[in-house]
Design brief:
The chain is 66% helix and 0% strand. The chain is mainly alpha-helical. The chain has one domain (2-212).
């Protein structure tokens, strides 16, 4: 799955010069349907995070639909530890999606696809009046906090990717963006300490997990 490839690259970065046992400790086993769900969210929010073109949402829909067609029993419902209301909503979005020819000269998605993307962002990330990108960031933040607290990614690997590409975004928008935006810089700060303070890593990993458990896919 797509997200596993990204995590593998981070594991390689964090484990340079480490023993095979230390490298293995950074890896996690993830149920296939959860991997497909999290991969969808990760790719579908790339546009919001300036980490992909507008059609990254289309590719996310296409990838999840194709995976379910190949193995509906393994990748269908229920999704491990994801509230049914959330996974059902994603299913409705993906089932309604149809690829539409791009608008010549435009970097934006065609109307109906853009509307579906924006619906995904606002319904799962909340509309706080701070724009589509912020809502997409909140969906991204929910996914990583849940993936960490559910034990499906090592806390340091998850915190690195949770904050990745956020820059000063969360600091600039925290007043209106809410706790899911504030969490972006907090994840980056905790990861930074994990990297700089190897003697405190166990405690910092527990701190990351406890922090992530307060967010996730809950209300």
């Amino acid at each position: 799955m797509y997200i596993a490839e990204v995590e593998t690259s981070v594991v390689s970065l964090l484990s340079k010069g480490q023993s095979p046992e230390a490298v293995e400790a950074l890896r996690r086993q993830v149920p296939i349907q959860r991997e497909a769900f999290d991969s969808f969210v990760f790719q579908a929010t790339q546009w919001a995070r300036d980490d992909g073109a507008a059609d990254s949402f289309s590719f996310a829909c296409e990838r999840l639909r194709a995976a379910r067609q190949r193995d509906a029993a393994a990748i269908g419902q229920p999704v491990t530890l994801i509230p049914p209301s959330v996974s059902d909503h994603v299913d409705r979005i993906v089932s309604r999606w149809r690829r539409i020819p791009p608008i010549p000269g435009s970097l934006e998605l065609p109307g109906e696809e853009a509307q579906l993307r924006d619906e995904l962002y606002s319904s799962l990330g909340g509309d706080l009046g701070d724009g589509r990108a912020a809502a997409g960031w909140r969906v991204h933040s929910r996914m990583w906090s849940a993936r960490i607290s559910d034990g499906f990614v090592h806390p340091a690997v998850g915190a690195y990717l949770w904050h990745d590409n956020a820059g000063r975004y969360s600091q600039d928008r925290v007043v209106v963006g809410g706790p899911l935006i504030a969490a972006l810089s907090a994840a980056g700060e905790m990861w930074g300490r994990w990297w700089r303070e190897p003697q405190h890593r166990v405690a910092i990993e527990q701190e990351i997990t406890a922090f992530a458990s307060m967010l996730g896919w809950g209300p």
